[in-house]
Design brief:
Structural class: alpha+beta
Order of helices and strands: HHEHHEEEEEH
Mean pLDDT: 86
Distance between the termini: 39 Å
CATH architecture of the largest domain: Orthogonal Bundle
Strand order of the largest sheet: 1-3-2
Strand content: 5-15%
Radius of gyration: 18 Å
Amino acid sequence: MPSPSDLRSELQAAGLRVTAQRLAVLAVLREEGSHLRADEIIEATHARLQTVSTQAVYSALSALCGTGLIRRIEPAGSAALYEARVADNHHHVVCRVCGLIADVECVVGAAPCLDPSSTGGFVIDEAEITFWGLCPTCQQTAASLPPENRFTSQGE
């Protein structure tokens, strides 16, 4: 768990002004886990700073994403999610039934770990991969259901 002085140093190194809101949001993501929705971050930040506004949390999220201190991911069918794991080239696996998300290491290495057949003139610096399937819990649940009642994708 990073200390408050470590978080201050990270904000300063990223060129951001150190504010209570930014410190709290960054601490929430570092301490309370990955793949958090904005409403979860708002609730946890309110618990730390009772007077913080919802807009201040969204502003902090935007600033932290903009400097690369946190990452925003948007799996199909999901609200935007935020994570503090940014210093590597990892991807995600999403359960089609319950929506559980887990990190998956890049199988090739440095970003981007995939090379497109054509770039259209773009300079590619990242490849974002989302794997879809069933988590262990949903696999067990699906196995106990009759075949006609098994779910194969979220929302079916």
